[in-house]
Amino acid sequence: MGRLHQLRGEWSEAIPCLLAARPRMRAEDRVACDQALILSYLKTDQPVQALALADDGILNSGIFSDIYRKLRKEIERKTRDASAARSL
Questions:
Q1: d(Cα 37, Cα 41) in Å, to the nearest integer?
Q2: DSSP alpha helices (H): ranges in the chain?
């Protein structure tokens, strides 16, 4: 359901669905769920939650930690870009 909400641009509605699905996910499926959740957090202006999720993945995802490191860098970049755009 979370991905369907995202396809419709319903970012806020996607978050609870993705959070509910997350504990049932393993390996690549968990990474995909977390990527979708991070996107929803960013689209709803919740970078702190996005960063926390990336940090959790870095610490706890084993062989997938590099993916979460890249996600964290992307979150930081988008947050910086959004801040710079607001200050113009």
A1: 6
A2: 2-7, 11-21, 27-43, 47-60, 65-86
**CB-side neighbour CA atoms (13 Å) of 26:** 0
User: Two tokens at 35?
Assistant: 């990527």
What pLDDT shows up at residue 87?
Answer: 74
**Euclidean distance between CA atoms 41 and 48, whole angstroms:** 8
Q: What is the pTM of this model?
A: 0.92
How many domains, in total, are found in the chain?
1
Measuring CA to CA, which residue among 27, 25, 23, 49 is closest to residue 37? 49
Side chain identity at 21, as an amino acid letter? A
